[in-house]
Amino acid sequence: MNMKTAYVHGYLPREARRLYDQADTLAPLLHAGTAYPAGSWVLEVGCGVGAQTVYLARNSPRARIVAVDHSEESLAQARAYLREQEPDADVTWRTADLLHLPFKEAEFDHIFACFVLEHLWEPGKALATLRRLLRPGGTLTVIEGDHGSAVFHPDSPHAHEVIGHQVRLQAAAGGNALLGRELQPLLSGAGFGNVVIRPRTVYADRTRPALVDGFTRNTFIAMVEAVRDDALGIGLTTAADWDRGITDLRRAAEDDGTFHYTFFKAVAVNPMS
Amino acid sequence: MNMKTAYVHGYLPREARRLYDQADTLAPLLHAGTAYPAGSWVLEVGCGVGAQTVYLARNSPRARIVAVDHSEESLAQARAYLREQEPDADVTWRTADLLHLPFKEAEFDHIFACFVLEHLWEPGKALATLRRLLRPGGTLTVIEGDHGSAVFHPDSPHAHEVIGHQVRLQAAAGGNALLGRELQPLLSGAGFGNVVIRPRTVYADRTRPALVDGFTRNTFIAMVEAVRDDALGIGLTTAADWDRGITDLRRAAEDDGTFHYTFFKAVAVNPMS
């Protein structure tokens, strides 16, 4: 899931806190089923401030995790967070660009990437690169959202319009906020085998107030709201139309509102040659 | 899920067969968790040709089922189907209109309604009527789709346009193809308590060929295709635009395509007074 402002400013403690809270809200859903054996080498790409790394470490306490990000500041934050949350975790931190990773072929048993491919201009190329770092038989796990899956009540074309602006801005930045639905052909096309996609959905209504707050308000709506200045700045919309859309979207978090969103989790295997 | 043609012509063996096949595809998903105790009185409203009734009977073999539909022809078909599939089932068949049901207050322990509310002009009114037929503490189970939840690859505005025509036609007929997202406020508003909504999603790609055929092609796309003549007849679209949208939608069922759809299953309780 794109959280543009948060992503860019992940090194600010306050923004990092927001990312950690969002990860805590979604972790039971997204990390279920992901646990790596003791001693296995696991590469996490695009670890950012470590919001997912902490769950990798927690669920695979004896795996050897190598976490990579292009931002030194994010990594510093991630390191501090893991020291606080999982002091015994075996994590090595590396600064590197996703397309120029400093690793040898077949160096890893498993690779994990959450909310990373959606930011890339050529996700298929990145996947092919990652596959070469996996031993034959090793697995890749990818998690992505898809903003086209957002279903909410009350429905509103104005609310869909502001979500659409977020999608357009992410596309203009070279990313894809509708990537979840494409994981199967993307991973297959990059040479992975046994590509299995499992949708993981979040549904929030008044019976689940923690999700209404943690997901509808503080994750999804907050993420859309974060691009307001960009959307107005390039003339995608007017302040009045933007505010109308956001006001409508917020109704999904009120007492009679509902919100449903789908993440797509893919697990695939680097074939034995 | 609206299957307009099939619904209207449910008494034709061939159309009925299509409905049974669709129900068989979805039953593991939709009926999971629905089983009623021995001896309990269960009302199924809008049973049609018995496509869901057979699963109610199978999963609750000792419940006493009363299945109601407004169409005598559908009921004849349903009766024949149950006799063939579940000859020992305890099912009583009744012809009646949903808003004028020939039952006493608090007569039933449980009520089940699948793909029924979406056809009603005033679903809230129908729910309030149904609630009076339940004993205090009795449960209502409702299952509805939501066409706004359809996410597919390759994405296509033309394909979304034809789905939109289906939604518009259903609305023009007094129904609502986007009802799934509204179940929480609808049931709460009708006086039910403990309203719990569970999304049940279908995801089909090349690794699940039976679902690509059974759901993407023969349920969802077939349902949209069934309204072609109506859409052209009232000038919603042109033949060329329609065919372009359907052609695009069919790509979701091809080798590199994906399709994701969400049903909403609600279980609610008639409060102890």
CATH class group of the domain at 13-150 and 163-203 and 262-269 in chain A: Alpha Beta
Count helical runs of chain A. Answer: 10
Low-pLDDT segments, ≥5 res of chain A? 1-11
Distance between the termini of chain A: 33 Å
Helix content of chain A: 40-55%
Q: Per CATH, which architecture of the domain at 13-150 and 163-203 and 262-269 in chain A?
A: 3-Layer(aba) Sandwich
Strand content of chain A: 15-25%
Largest interface: A-B, 31 and 30 residues
Annotated CATH topology of the domain at 13-150 and 163-203 and 262-269 in chain A: Rossmann fold
Overall geometric form of chain A: globular
Mean pLDDT level of chain A: 94
Under CATH, the homologous superfamily of the domain at 13-150 and 163-203 and 262-269 in chain A reads Vaccinia Virus protein VP39
The biggest sheet of chain A amounts to: 8 strands, mixed
Structural class of chain A: alpha/beta
Oligomer: homodimer
- Alpha carbon gyration radius of chain A: 18 Å
Description of the structure:
The structure is a homodimer of 273-residue chains. With 273 residues, chain A is α/β, with parallel strands linked by helices. Chain A has a domain at 13-150 and 163-203 and 262-269: Rossmann fold (3-Layer(aba) Sandwich), CATH 3.40.50.150. Chain A has helices spanning 4-8, 13-30, 53-59, 72-85, 123-133, 157-172, 183-189, 209-225, 228-233, 239-250; strands spanning 41-45, 64-69, 91-95, 108-114, 134-144, 151-153, 193-204, 258-269. In chain A, strands 1, 2, 3, 4, 5, 6, 7 and 8 form an 8-stranded mixed beta sheet that branches. In chain A, strand 2 (64-69), helix 4 (72-85) and strand 3 form a beta-alpha-beta unit. Chain A starts with a helix and ends with a strand. The A-B interface holds A 146, 148-149, 151-153, 155, 178, 180-185, 188-189, 195-199, 201, 203, 205-207, 256-258, 260, 262 and B 146, 148-149, 151-153, 155, 178, 180-182, 184-185, 188-189, 195-199, 201, 203, 205-207, 256-258, 260, 262. Chains A, B: One of its GO terms (biological process) is methylation. Chains A, B: One of its GO terms (molecular function) is methyltransferase activity.
